[in-house]
Design goal:
alpha+beta; four-stranded antiparallel β-sheet; 3 helices; 4 strands
Length: 101
């Protein structure tokens, strides 16, 4: 029997207030862990292959399921943390269902 697909939060983040964004970076890992998430990529080097490479940070967080990823992004615990990100950066977030394992 195949494992259920995991869920991923994928973000493209262009920080415009590094000092303010530091509060987000400090607060978000605990909320991610609370929802069973773990970082797969977090602002590492980007190599463009086709089209234009993003200019900001790329973050990929894996969750046990797409439902769990959605629970995280819509949670009461994440809302005040997300507000910090929204205030200190321009960003796009997506929840993506993985393939069955």
């Amino acid at each position: 029997m195949a494992d259920a697909p995991k869920g991923y939060v994928v973000a493209e983040v262009d920080v415009h207030d590094a000092e303010g964004f530091a509060a987000y970076r400090a607060a978000v890992p605990a909320v991610i862990a609370q929802y069973g998430g773990r970082y797969m990529a977090r602002g590492g080097a980007i190599t463009g292959v086709e089209g234009e490479a993003p200019t900001g940070r790329i973050v990929i967080v894996e969750f046990p399921s797409k439902a769990q990823a959605e629970a995280f992004v819509h949670s009461a615990e994440y809302a005040p943390v997300a507000a910090i990100r929204q205030r200190t950066s321009s960003s796009r977030l997506f929840v993506v269902e993985g393939v069955e394992g």
